[in-house]
Amino acid sequence: MNAMKKIGLICTALFPLVAQAEIVVSQATIFPTEKAGQPSAIFMQLQNTGNETVNLLFAESQQPTRLELHGMHNGKMHALNGIEIPAKQSISLKRGGLHIMVFNLTQPIQQGEIFPIKLFFDDGEVVEVNAEAATK
């Protein structure tokens, strides 16, 4: 097989990986905490640049914590099975609305600290996010 055919096959095999990079994350923050065990919350902007609706299924951290997708209804927080992001639209994970709760922290989160997480979507996309600890 000549070199051009090999390059073409490799590009064809990698195209689905490039094509599914449709979620853009910005302004990711996490609330600092005063002590271990105190819950926190992660907020961010999620933009779906694709032509299909995508659902955020769950989030994970390398730290020994539990992350849950949450929303607010009638002033009460509740866990969600997913967060829908319509095609060509953005949603905000923000205080008083959709957000990611962080439970069982083994260490406090200090102002300015980076808290890495991974977001898992129903189209197979996994997005790595660095949430910065900030009070805003």
From TrEMBL:
Residues 1-21 form the signal peptide. This is Putative DR1885-like metal-binding protein. Gene3D superfamilies: PCu(A)C copper chaperone. It comes from Avibacterium avium (Pasteurella avium). Keywords: Signal.
